[in-house]
Structure formats: structure tokens, C-alpha cells
């Protein structure tokens, strides 16, 4: 058997095609055979990299998490603002508005009641996204735009609440209930000395969840 000279390109192709199929057909309705046929590869080429559809989803998720983290790092380097607080507000709004950063949100929403998925998402959020936010909050402590004594803890709470508690799919909430929780989050963070949840951010999160809900309704 000829050895694949470009395994990284093959892996990227598998992930890209799988992500597209998961989005178009839905994760549950996409089979490994669908992925094989779309790729035009042999079954052996797929199973050389992944043992199951679940492993493919995990890899697709990790690629998405990495993209978001890289995007935030680029924004941190290039965003100009009067202080750290305004810089972080701009970064959060831009991340939420970026289509590529959320291209798999609808797919991932179908797994939100999977305990392993939820735990993995919580760990990724705390270990990666929260640490990036915490670093900017520490800058805000220095320039006076952030007044909390617990920047790391506030960053972690923000990520956990946005990703889990506010998620309407997990708790089967209405749009108005989700908006109320976002407003509470805004108030809570402000009281804690981390006034970074803007009205624009709330609007963009709400629009994102509305899109996910419409996708779920269409799939039912």
C-alpha cells in the first residue's frame, strides 16, 4: 500500500468535509459512510485517522476552539483602545460577530445535553478562553479600568455562565428568558468591577442563540 505523503492535508480535508456535512445534514444524520463518499477516499484512509464519528466530532470541536483562541490573540495584538476594559469589550463583540468562530454552533448545540461534551466545553473554556480574558482584566487593574480583586475568577465565571448557564438549548428557555439572564450577567459583572458585558454583546449573543433555535426547529 502506498504511504500517504501528506497526512496533515488529508486530516484537514477530513475535518473540513465533516464539519460541512455536520452543519448541512446535522451530526446525528451524518454517517461515516456519508463522510467517506463526500471525500472520495477509502474507508481505510478515514479509519487511519479516526476510529469513529465521535472522534471526528471531537477533532472538529478542537479545531474550532483553536481557531477562536487564535482569533482572540490576533485581536489582542491589533485592537486599539483607551484602556483594557474598552479593549476587552471590543474583542468580545468582534469574536461574537465572527461567522467562522461560530460556524459550528448549530452543530455543537445538538450535543449540548451530552455530559462528556458539556464537561469538555467547560474545561476548554476555563483553560483557554478564560485565561486570555483574565490577562486583559489584569491589565485593566493596572490602568484602573477594571476594579475587581478577582480577575481570574471573574473571567472563569463569565465563560462558564455564557457557555453553559445562559445556553437556551441546555435549559430549554425562551428568548425572553435568555435575554433576562444576559442582563443579569451584565449587572453582576458590573457590580464585581468588571463592566465588560455591553448591550451590543448581549444583542449579538441573542442573535446567535436565535439562529441556533431556528436551526433546531427546522431539524425537528
Characterize the structure shown:
The chain is mostly helical. It has two domains: 1-51; 54-212. It is 75% helix and 0% strand. It has helices spanning 7-25, 32-39, 43-49, 53-78, 84-97, 105-109, 115-143, 151-165, 168-171, 175-191, 199-219. Helix 1 packs across helix 4 (53-78) and helix 10 packs antiparallel against helix 11 (199-219).
Describe the sheet with the most strands: none
Mean pLDDT value:
86
| SSE run | HHHHHHHHHHH
Helix content: over 70%
Proportion in β-strands: under 5%
> Spans of 5+ residues with little confidence (pLDDT < 50)?
none
Defining traits:
single chain, 220 residues, mainly alpha, 2 domains, 11 helices, 75% helix, globular
Briefly say what this structure is.
This protein is an all-alpha fold.
Question: Which helices and strands occur, and which strands form pairs?
Answer:
Layout: H1 7-25, H2 32-39, H3 43-49, H4 53-78, H5 84-97, H6 105-109, H7 115-143, H8 151-165, H9 168-171, H10 175-191, H11 199-219
Helix pairs in contact: 1-2, 1-4, 4-5, 4-7, 5-7, 5-11, 7-8, 10-11
Protein name: TetR family transcriptional regulator
Domain HTH tetR-type: 8-68
Pfam family, one: TetR_N
Amino acid at each position: 500500500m502506498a504511504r500517504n505523503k501528506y497526512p496533515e492535508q488529508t486530516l484537514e480535508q477530513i475535518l473540513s468535509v465533516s464539519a460541512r456535512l455536520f452543519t448541512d445534514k446535522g451530526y446525528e444524520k451524518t454517517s461515516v459512510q456519508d463522510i467517506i463518499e463526500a471525500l472520495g477516499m477509502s474507508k481505510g484512509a478515514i479509519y487511519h485517522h479516526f476510529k469513529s464519528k465521535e472522534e471526528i466530532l471531537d477533532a472538529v470541536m478542537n479545531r474550532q476552539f483553536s481557531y477562536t483562541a487564535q482569533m482572540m490573540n490576533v485581536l489582542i495584538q491589533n485592537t486599539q483602545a483607551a484602556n483594557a476594559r474598552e479593549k476587552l469589550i471590543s474583542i468580545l463583540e468582534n469574536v461574537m460577530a465572527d461567522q467562522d468562530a461560530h460556524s459550528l454552533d448549530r452543530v455543537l448545540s445538538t450535543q449540548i445535553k451530552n455530559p462528556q461534551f458539556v464537561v469538555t466545553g467547560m474545561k476548554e473554556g476555563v483553560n483557554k478562553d478564560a485565561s486570555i480574558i483574565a490577562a486583559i482584566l489584569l491589565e485593566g487593574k493596572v490602568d484602573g479600568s477594571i476594579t475587581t480583586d478577582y480577575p481570574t475568577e471573574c473571567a472563569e465565571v463569565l465563560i462558564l455562565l455564557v457557555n453553559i448557564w445562559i445556553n437556551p438549548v441546555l435549559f430549554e428557555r425562551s428568548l425572553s428568558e435568555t435575554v433576562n439572564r444576559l442582563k443579569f450577567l451584565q449587572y453582576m459583572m458590573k457590580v464585581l468591577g468588571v463592566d465588560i458585558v455591553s448591550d451590543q454583546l448581549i444583542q449579538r449573543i441573542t442573535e446567535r442563540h436565535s439562529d441556533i433555535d431556528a436551526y433546531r426547529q427546522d431539524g425537528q
